[in-house]
């Protein structure tokens, strides 16, 4: 009697594109490098500088490092040029030099690590300011393409709400024409600072382009002391963080994204007709439920028909060859 069995193949993998933190391996690198060198080193030898998503990871990094009175780089940095327009909400890099978006002397300086919104200063040049400061502001109205100077002092986000309620949004400055119209609107108003729609997210993203809300700052950090501290270190005696000058040389933490794939072959014995697609679907569904309840979300289930061992010895090769491990 010909014996045919079915193999149910389960591919289980962890740590694909979404990179859940638990599928990372961490490394302490005992070499002194500046932040950009450390980043290159991690990207070359591992995956990237670390992102610290929670206190467990912070504790893990702390426990794997030596107890020396020094600091080590993490993947956190403060990108002074990662600006967005309120109206578009997507990244719009404003470099240190630009045709018509001109920073006032020494700006942006992210003073005290607390300046994430932009005002026009002296009516023409940009200055990053604390978002909580109250200034008059410039709205843009898309219906009649006009710029409206509101002479009430508000915080940046209150100004944004006002503009969104009564007009379109806080103004962008996307062309020379727009810039000169704005200059005209402001002319004679006497305003010293006026909010425009430029802002950025503090401390986001990390070197690997993911974001995390967890922080473990030392008291009174970050402070961007001397407006020179845009990269973040962990203290190796205490596990707490500080912003530091990116050009300084420290040890550092890297991670490797681990992609594990496990192939599970199951041989099922049943009175039921396992060749029936319906029954295969039922079994697959039950198995899926079981996997999900165990917290496994990244898996695939495949059925494979197998000739009986006795039936054809040479087919065995074929069966094994069918269970490819894919990375
Ligand atoms: C454009 O519309 C806004 C809102 O209605 C109004 O405040 C503003 O004065 C208008 N500007 C022009 C130039 O019509
Ligand atoms: C700005 O000024 C120019 C002329 O310099 C004009 O053509 C344009 O409509 C104005 N408005 C806006 C919204 O740019
Ligand atoms: C500002 O307005 C004054 C007159 O009110 C004018 O003389 C001057 O040229 C204007 N400046 C700009 C930059 O438009
Ligand atoms: C970083 O992530 C954002 C969205 O999360 C994406 O738009 C952007 O392209 C990414 N940048 C890089 C360099 O991967
Ligand atoms: C790190 O050092 C390299 C030279 O080895 C230099 O090119 C780079 O600008 C430095 N990075 C920082 C942030 O100072």
Automatic annotation (TrEMBL):
Cleavable signal peptide: 1-17
Keywords: Signal
Transmembrane segments: none
Keyword Signal: yes
SUPFAM superfamilies listed in its UniProt record: C-type lectin-like (SSF56436)
Domain of life: Eukaryota
Pfam families attached to this UniProt entry: Lectin_C
SMART domains named in the record: CLECT (SM00034)
The keyword Signal belongs to this UniProt entry's keyword annotation: yes
Domain C-type lectin residue range list: 21-140, 142-255
Protein's name according to its UniProt entry: C-type lectin domain-containing protein
Provenance organism: Oreochromis aureus
